[in-house]
């Protein structure tokens, strides 16, 4: 394809990879950001045009200065806006009029400072909406593209490599760069500081940066998502080809307050966010010092083949035990070696060595570090081994024992790289000497093998690589997380009566079991008799949400006593809820004995509709055993959801409870999820309890709350 045939780049593409930059608010004062940006571009070797704009200066750092934006050549890619907040909306309009595709707005003083900045934020939004210009910020540290030299941050000497970064905090970029340097990591390709997300969002940057061939991983620090559902969809789309690692701020109540004061973001429920981000394939890290390390390893190290696990090769029992404990804490079992592997290790290492896993060399490498390579080859030949984790002193034997071992260690590093390539098994090194400048470590890192100083970091990387190995195997079994077109809305608003709620479920193909609705007390007995077995009888009233609290439920009702029970329900509800209008009663056969579960749904303010699952019945509040998934979800995701709960332990015939078909339960969760996804008017859904038994999955109580409709809403 020639340049004449090349498709036009979108505004976002031009913004994140600019081929011309306008500096609005350029300055001859070295202390001003409008000067520092020009200097940084020159020092970074930016080879494309730079157009300074300042009405009072003729030249800055050898560049001719334009008196106004309208004097800049038409159609530049990016404008760096280095002017006070009040002048930003006007500057954006001028940039748009000059055909500039996007802008990076440095100024703060907008939504992050509360009401005082709200009017200015509204003016900024209006300028964006009216012109279509794409904006990063405001309140941003800038952006950079190390491949082109487009450095609009001003930070110098950043090592170039495969990590692309998206954050809301400039300080987090500094942390990542320094953590990468400390770990002698692979370096960076691009950075976007989103600031307040007035326009450009995380999801857009994620998709665009992942398209850059230089990006091997996207590392994200987020304090809140302007559109959480769009981010989930973008992550689900991106992760199969490009890994995504994310550190979240604002997870606690105090953290959310700090995030709001800093960037104007709103952070939602931590439990929901954690579950749905993992569902989308995002690798979540909990500590700030993990993000650069995990991201760097995901960018350079091959994943663990699904179904295999890790072999620990250590030169000391203490380190081996710590590594084993750390792996167990991550839910990872060490590889179980074949008898052949153990015999070969024993012949190589002698009787003192531990060969069942973790493997302890027991001094066998002290005089000959090449033993590491020989033992590694034996391990890599074992079909159970998906990664070899070397723990201890590797690479520093010539410092610890004998300087004459340097050449052997260097040769061993080359051998290890060759073995990893030959057997297609990744390798990871933890060494006490990782922080030193050691040639064999550098050789390993250059070959894509992380060399880390911390056992905990090394094991955290193993966990990420193991999850990464599942991606290609499960790709077709994962949800895209795209919401379907809305179905015809459920009539009404507020809390539905139970018959209407059950009818809505049935229409969507969610079986709530047999039931009937009766209006009068005298009709209860015949309804119970028709089912031919003891029944539950429940009041139906729009003013009663928790029926049992007002005596509105009777269980095990038989035909002979049905009228008596119905009258008792009426009396109790009238006494405890005198303003309630009683519409009638629901009669439904008693469910077979089984496991009481909770299946629910809510509309998360950040991520949209999510499904909840866990232990149900009267234990809901006491046990708080619940997990979440965004809907729509797949059967695989539903099964994973089930396995995360304490309730899962009761599904296999625990004590007196019947065994439950998990496949049927998973399919039930999928159907409920599809129902909620197709009905954006559902604010809450509560099926509690759902009785899971050998006979099937039966919701006992059904509660649906619809969002209040606006005056213009109508049923289609």
Quick take:
By secondary structure, the protein is an alpha/beta fold. It has 23 helices and 30 strands. The radius of gyration is 31 Å and the shape is flat.
Q: How many individual β-strands?
A: 30
Report how far apart the termini are. 49 Å
For the sheet with most strands, the description reads: 7 strands, mixed
What is the 3D shape?
flat
Main sheet strand line-up: 9-8-11-10-12-13-14
In terms of DSSP E residues, the strand content is 15-25%
Alpha carbon gyration radius: 31 Å
Oligomer: single chain
Weakly predicted, low-confidence segments: 254-268, 710-716
Average residue pLDDT: 91
What labels describe this entry?
716 residues, alpha/beta, 23 helices, flat, disordered C terminus
Could you describe the 3D structure shown?
The chain has 716 residues and is of the alpha/beta class. The strands form six sheets. It has a seven-stranded mixed sheet with strand order 9-8-11-10-12-13-14, with helices on both faces. Strands 20, 25, 26, 27, 28, 29 and 30 form a seven-stranded antiparallel sheet that branches. Strands 2-1-5-6-7 form a five-stranded parallel sheet, sandwiched between helices. The longest helix has 20 residues, at 455-474. Residues 254-268 and 710-716 have low confidence and may be disordered.
